[in-house]
Amino acid sequence: MSRGKINPENLTYVDGQLRGVVYRYVLTMNDAPEYGQSYVGETAVEAERIKSWRNKGNHTYGGEKCRVARDKYGWRCWDYEVLEEVFAPDLEKLKLLLEEREGYWIKHFDSVVR
Asked: Which residues have a Cβ under 8 Å from the Cβ of 74 and sit 6 or more positions away?
């Protein structure tokens, strides 16, 4: 989950529950040796995480391996997809559920680990 403070105004509620997502970026450049590799992440504030991914100056997003691949190919060579929506009654529960589900998807895709 984003390690910074979350602005409550940016949270999304659905039927009284907080919404978060587990997502994946997949490298789609066919001639890249790392073609098909992916980064799995989770967030309670999806729009901010997408913006952060596109920020070339953000050197902390996803760890060293992810940063190197993102810098090498640019953010446009990665497809974004939501793997799972997660809902919870409060932010602490949402964080726990998102981290649990992120771990599941990282293992499922044998993805880049932070």
From this structure: none
pTM: 0.84
Q: How far apart are CA 73 and CA 51, in angstroms?
A: 17
As a whole number of angstroms, the distance between CA 42 and CA 110 comes to: 16
Q: How confident is the model at residue 11 (pLDDT cuts 50, 70, 90)?
A: confident
Model confidence pLDDT, tens digit, residues 74-98: 888 999 999 999 999 999 999 999 9
Question: What is the helix (H) or strand (E) element at residue 3, kind and residue range?
Answer: none
Which residue has 């997408």 as its token pair? 50
In sequence order, what DSSP letters do the residues of 3-64 get, joined into one string?
SSPPPGGG-EEETTEEEEEEEEEEE--TTSTTTT-EEEEEES-HHHHHHHHH-TT--STTHH
Radius of gyration of the chain (CA): 14
